[in-house]
Amino acid sequence: MKKASIFISALMILFSCKEYTKANAQESKKLKETTEEITFNPATIKKHLYTLASDEMEGRATGTPGIEKAAQYIENEFKKIGLTYFNSNTSYRQNFEHNGIKMFNVMGVLEGKSKKDEFVIVSAHYDHLEMKKDGDGDRIYNGANDDASGVTGVIALAEYFKKKGNNERSILFVCFTAEEMGLIGSKYFGKGIDASKFVAGINLELIGKEPKTGPKTAWLTGFERSDFGKIIQKNLEGTGYKLFPDPYPKYNLFFRSDNASLARLGVPSHTFSTTPIDIDPDYHKVTDEAETLDVNVLTETIKAVAIGTTSIINGKDTPTRVTIE
Ligand SMILES: [Zn+2]
After folding, report:
1. Is the pLDDT of residue 34 over 90?
2. From the CA of 224, how far away is ligand 1's center (Å)?
3. How far is CA 290 from CA 34, 141, 172, 298, 303, in A?
4. How is residue 257 annotated by DSSP?
5. How many CB atoms are located within 10 Å of the residue 89 CB?
6. What letter does residue 213 receive in the DSSP assignment?
7. Residue 279: CA atoms inside 13 Å, Cβ hemisphere, count?
8. Whole-number Å distance between alpha carbons of 33 and 109
9. How far away, in angstroms, is 257 Cα from ligand 1 center?
10. 122 — phi, psi (to 5°)?
């Protein structure tokens, strides 16, 4: 009896050890995967930012040769990542004309695994301001923070979600044109979609400088207009990164970026930002250069957007719709 129980005990210990080792291996595999999944390479982020904000792009004003170069860069990245075309489009471009200017949004799709008819949009505007006509010194509005930082985020997130490969919903990555001319690109885009199929809008603007709330924080426009922000906050719990409501309500920022064009159609579409715009010396100035940005802030913010939106991308959470009177 005693012998038998010793034998059984030994067997049990052996078994539980084996189980423990198995569980441990699974746990470390999970941890490894998580770590790998949330890694964004700052060198790649920097490359996107510095290319898009380079003098060669001449300010990326809509309808200029400079913005054409920016578009080609984005298209090339979308192609490398393996994004497909939206709906019946035959390229990444959505061409249209406004006030006699030929323009286009650049968009690519990562098809959803089980809910491919439900779209989450990840966007930023790739246009900026025209060059100064004359004057000495720097005449180029590089628009590094506004909004090469956001476009960098769109490209990096496309690469991230493609690699991750578990987006249950379809993700539409869009770089809007003519935002600076009055949200023209996003308004045009909005006219062509069935808004009921769009479950959320993630827009990125000015995400390259540390906000007043400190490192590893960002703010969201229109926070109270849906529960999108609360979902993000929940997903960011334990990461050390925090999301706050927009600290500048008087600037009416919710209506001043491309998220508004979708929000007006009922889509819970919000803009992530980090920059203390009330004191930023470079906003809409020729000094908005890549060197004034903090690549770590940019990288951390893109990573936070990736983690924060996970439950929306994988179909577990659906934010409440927006109503605008
Ligand atoms: Zn902007």
Report:
1. no
2. 22
3. 30, 11, 26, 11, 19
4. S
5. 14
6. T
7. 7
8. 24
9. 7
10. -115, 120
Q: Which residues of 29-55 are buried (b: 16+ CB within 10 A; e: fewer)?
A: eeeeeeeeeeebeeeebbebbbbbbbe
CA of 132 to the centre of ligand 1 (A): 18
Q: What is the pLDDT of residues 261-280, one digit of tens each?
A: 999 999 999 999 999 999 99
Percent of the chain with pLDDT over 70: 88
* Locus of tokens 């090339």: 76
Peptide bond before 147: cis, by omega within 30 degrees of 0?
A: yes
Q: Which two tokens stand for residue 250?
A: 């008087």
Tens-place pLDDT, residues 279-312: 999 999 999 999 999 999 999 999 999 999 999 9
Distance from residue 28's CA to the centre of ligand 1 (Å) = 41
Which residues have CB under 8 Å from 126's CB, separation 6+?
Answer: 52, 60, 67, 70, 71, 74, 106, 147, 148, 151, 175, 176, 177
Q: What is the pLDDT of residue 134?
A: 86
| pLDDT on residue 39 | 84
Count of Cβ atoms closer than 10 Å to residue 304 Cβ: 25
Residue 186's pLDDT is: 98
Contact criterion met (CB below 8 Å) for 113 and 31: no
What is the whole-number distance in angstroms between the Cα of residue 206 and the centre of ligand 1? Answer: 7
Overall average pLDDT of the 26-42 stretch: 61
Q: For the chain, what is the radius of gyration of the CA atoms?
A: 22
Name all domains of the chain by residue range, CATH numbers in brackets. 43-313 (3.40.630.10)
